[in-house]
Write a structure and sequence with these properties.
Layout: E1 2-6, E2 11-16, H1 25-33, E3 43-48, H2 57-69, E4 77-81, H3 86-99, E5 105-109, H4 112-134
Parallel strand pairs: 2-3, 3-4, 4-5
Antiparallel strand pairs: 1-2
Helix pairs in contact: 2-3
Length: 136
């Protein structure tokens, strides 16, 4: 697992690669949220490139709850890139469904470009809505 923070677009890019174990996520999140470049309200783009994994619905539900608990530290928008892996897509879809009640808006994509475009549109819409609410 690795991450890159791009303050210019208020985005955290996380890459999951093999070897991957789900128990790496909690320590990784501690490291991520301690990064001095991370600002409140940043969007998250998760690039899933793993091929070997061991995850169950209960584990995915638990991690959705953990993401919801950290929701105040980011925008709540997560773009998840599954590429062409249908099994990962299914697991990511399950995560998106479990995380929605936790205040996370997760959307799945097959390319990074699609994910970035969606996050850019969401951020632009958010800025426009704030401008409208302050200038009646």
């Amino acid at each position: 697992m690795s991450h890159r923070i791009d303050p210019a677009v208020s985005r955290i890019m996380i890459c999951l690669t093999d070897p991957f174990a789900i128990d790496q996520v909690a320590p990784f999140n501690i490291q991520l949220f301690a990064d001095p470049l991370l600002g409140r309200g940043f969007d998250i783009l998760i690039d899933i490139r793993i091929r070997h994994y061991s995850m169950s619905p209960s584990i995915i539900r638990e991690h959705a709850a953990m993401a919801g608990a950290e929701n105040s530290r980011h925008s709540g928008r997560q773009a998840i890139v599954c590429h062409d892996n249908r099994l990962i897509y299914g697991l990511a879809r399950m995560y998106a469904l479990f995380s929605e009640p936790m205040g996370i808006k997760a959307k799945l994509f097959t390319t990074i470009q699609q994910a970035e475009q969606w996050l850019d549109e969401c951020r632009r819409d958010s800025v426009e809505m704030r401008a409208l609410s302050t200038n009646p």
